[in-house]
Amino acid sequence: MKTFRALELMQHTTIIALMAVCSIAYPLHVSAQAQQGEEAPVTDARDDKRSRVEKFRDHRAGKKAAEEAKAQTAEALFPLATRVEPTVRLSSRDQRNVQKMLDLSRGEAEDQAKAQAMGEELLANPKVTGYTRAFTNRVLADIRLEQDDIQGSIDFLKAAIDADALSNDQHFQTMLVLAQTLINEDRAEEGIVVFDRLVAESKTDNPDYLIIKANALYQLERYPEALALAKQLVAASAEPKPGWQRLLVALYAQTEQPLEAAEVLKKLIAADPTDKGLRTNLAGMYQEAGDNDAAVAVLNEMRAQGLLTTDRDYRALYSLYANIEGHDADVIAVINEGLEKGILEENVQVYTVLAQSHYFSDQIPQAIEAYKKASEFATDGAPTLNLARIFATEGRMAEAKTTANEALAKGLPAPGHAWVLLGQVEHNLGNRAATAAAMKEAAKYPETKANAEEWLRKNKVR
Questions:
Q1: Does residue 100 surpass a pLDDT of 80?
Q2: What is the extent of the structural domain holding 348?
Q3: Is residue 315 a part of any domain in this protein?
């Protein structure tokens, strides 16, 4: 069942939903000295003709918009940070160069190449301010990321952090990007170190950030730690995000708590009843917990709604029924339905299970036909040997003999059993010499050696 569960869970990569933080805004912090060189806005003489009412209305609206923009700008992303905001020093020349580099970095490959050249030139200049140096490293990190030069991006991110000159928001966002990049590159241990530093210095309790660490711990298979953090985030939120809950499901599954996983899955399903994968996982969790009846109920509800649409879906349901005593009729019904709809693939496994269910339901003719179909798809003689056994049990010895020989000709993992069956068939047909010959063959194989030799001794066959 663990294989079934893992496969299902892996279909939903949002169970490990990682926050995309590599594209952040870079507000340039401009000094008062740089601002003083700006030209005054040009006014249109036609403004004088506008009524006082219009001017007052526009002024009031503009003032309100400015106040809102200022409030939004003033809202810090890391308000609890202990780091003192550095004094930003940026000359007017550096401002123009950095802004141009930033604009080019957002363009196509040719523009990005120009931005990279500008950035390298700025970094080579020992006179640029710490802020210019840090900001340039941050922009170059994104350019390298766009070029799939991950290590180059990591190096520039580290340089931007080490410069310790960005604003708090920029500084800690850069740490966040570095942590995430390392985690995405299967360097989760390094990523967690950076992330722990971020939390220690910024004092952030933002769950959108903390979930990154939970995912990193999951990646490192440190499931109990990841589970504790994920549970904390989900419990603290009035409306936990689906990605957090999916991670919680995966962690409960990995720590062998399928019923707890099922409870979370039911909440996810209530929010999105059309998600087939969630319901399939719910059935898997019930099966993992040993509650096959509950698992069957989930899959049958899906069946009634026409949601069993793949071979795997039907196999899951008939396999569950096959493991519950007294449900052979249900196994037969599910398999036949899947075959009739063309959803369930015809193969040796399907027809073998169908044959067994018919046999245990005393439907011998149907069992024989199913074993014949299984034999058509088999690469060895195993289902053919089972067919021979049914013929022998039904007293159809001639057919049993022919079929057992066909099984041997096709190849068997344990041929001794076929020779023992042939010995029994020949005995019932009254062929003593053929019986002895078959038992001598059976004595050559480890699976039947002891019993065959005992029969040969008792019957004084040499």
A1: yes
A2: 308-373
A3: yes
